[in-house]
Amino acid sequence: MDQYLQGLFVLAHDSAAEVRKLVCAAFVQLIEVNPSFLEPHLRNVIEYMLQVNKDSDDEVALEACEFWSAYCDAQLPLENLREFLPRLIPVLLSNMAYAEDDESLAEAEEDESLPDRDQDLKPRFHSSRFHGSDNAEDDDDDIVNIWNLRKCSAAGLDVLSNVFGDEILPTMMPIVQAKLSTTDDETWKEREAAVLALGAVAEGCITGLYPHLSEIVAFIIPLLDDKFPLIRSISCWTLSRFSRFVVQGIDHQKGCEQFDKVLRGLLRRILDTNKRVQEAACSAFATLEEEAAEKLAPHLEIILQHLMCAFGKYQRRNLRIVYDAIATLADAVGEKLNQPTHLDILMPPLIAKWQQLSNSDKDIFPLLECFTSIAQALGPGFSQFAEPVFQRCINIIQTQQLAKIDPASAGVQYDKEFIVCSLDLLSGLAEGLGSGIESLVAQSSLRDLLLQCCMDDDAPDVRQSAFALLGDLARVCPVHLHPRLSDFLNVAAKQLNTSKLKETVSVANNACWAIGELAVKVHQEVSPIVMTVISCLVPILQHAEELNKSLIENSAITLGRLAWVCPEIVSLHMEHFMQSWCTALSMIRDDIEKEDAFRGLCAMVRANPSGALSSLVYMCKAIASWHEIRSEELHNEVCQVLHGYKQMLRNGAWEQCMSALEPPVKDKLSKYQV
């Protein structure tokens, strides 16, 4: 290693740019893979990287720039980097200006009237429906095109701001202020980079910026109307990075006025004639919507007018972002959307588009997703639109299932994403309409189509969405699943018993949840599969630390629901799972599902009191994990269980059990008078 490092230092100032680039890449790799090798040489390496970060060759500078994020990720002592910050920050800031050959400069000239080419459309990814607490969705707020020195420098500044916080502001702010105070046309790229820098440090330096935030926001708002499109677009992004602050101020007059200005400014930019600005404004607006949530309700009319106007004029690529903004709006305001004045603006253009797209046109995906959010927001208010939407989802699934076997007679090429999006929209309808969906399900072939999707061994994402829909239908119209109940239960159980559980954890998660939802509706009829399911759930609970949190929660709840409906079967095996089950239960937040699980606990203890004796401490901890049990009836059942054990355990055994508990747990149990 020493010889290798010596060799790198020798080549560090090679005249060939390609060699310098590879030297930088080597240092970045080393710090990622084994930072200890570089520790003795850190000062020299940092000094070198700082020089090369200013290299006249952009590719060399880009490679060097990767070093700063890698350094921060490597958990090396920050002291070593701290003293270089006053020299590093100015380099990053000067590299954040657009390069002459940046592809965005040419793109920024594109007017909205120019149709998108197919290669402009990035592949889109629909993430299947997921029931639980931690669906890993990672949205990147910057628009991902080609990685370059500008983006890498901004990302580096973002990372440094998260690691060093406000310490970087004394170096950064004077430079940013100087760049922002320039006014001539030649220096617009400097102004743009300064606005980008403010957005990049918006999270990491929020404390230091906080006292000045309303000034900063007030300064950026007029830039939304700048004559340079890339200044307009970056101002949208940076404002969105401060959207939490902007929304927090809504309750006092000054803040309320500022929120209004930001809202209206972004809406103006959504109707910009420049495609790049449209894209940035629409994305920024979706971020503001998430932060503001129901506070947007008073502004719904003007928001909908702008979004639907954009919907009418955008080209295909940006249209997807409008769909996203509409869906986010529906998620944000919920049933406030359910007013005739709002629906009259929102629905006709969407329905017109719905009628214009064919069942095999991929542009229907974002529309299906958008309708899913609208159906959930409107609830029963969606019923006036439900029938054609429901029917079309069924038709799409049927066509695709045929295309899988025989594309020629289906007339389309098989693409599973059509099935996934349709299943998810049906879930949205079930959630929104509740039992109102029953008449639609009754007259359709959904049951058999759904069973086919649950059995689709080639496509985990189809199964994932299918089991989500199975659970949603179990909640609102179990009677229609009845004729194929044992098939559904068996195929759901099969998802839990797989050697590849980790790869298909989301499928197992939804299948597990669906079994629980079916159990509480059909009671004893789940008994034939109870032992199969329990024998899969127990190992999951016993390996809790290796598996995802949501699967553990759903396994614990489903086990409890099965115990509640079939206590005589489940209670025979209690000692095998009480400890790990109670541990999992104590991690779950208070809600209806947790109540069901505890009804199962009480039912099992009544059926087999000795089964929980060896795990009593764990059971007490699980009971103590409730903030409060809302249901009086369940509270009393838990009370009886505890008192039962207190009477059963004579000669100080109960006191011994109590003394093994931490004081906060004992305090929590005091409300049960034990």
TrEMBL record:
Residues 261-478 form the Importin subunit beta-1/Transportin-1-like TPR repeats domain. It is found in: Cytoplasm; Nucleus, Nucleoplasm. Gene3D superfamilies: Leucine-rich Repeat Variant. GO terms for biological process: protein import into nucleus. It holds the Pfam family HEAT_EZ. Residues 104-113 have a biased composition (Acidic residues). Residues 114-123 have a biased composition (Basic and acidic residues). One of its GO terms (cellular component) is cytoplasm. SUPFAM superfamilies: ARM repeat. Keywords: Cytoplasm, Nucleus, Protein transport, Repeat, Transport. Residues 104-136 are annotated as: Disordered. InterPro entries: ARM-like, ARM-type_fold, IMB1_TNPO1-like_TPR, Importin_beta. Belongs to the importin beta family. Importin beta-2 subfamily. PANTHER family: IMPORTIN BETA (PTHR10527). This is Transportin-1. It comes from Vitis rotundifolia.
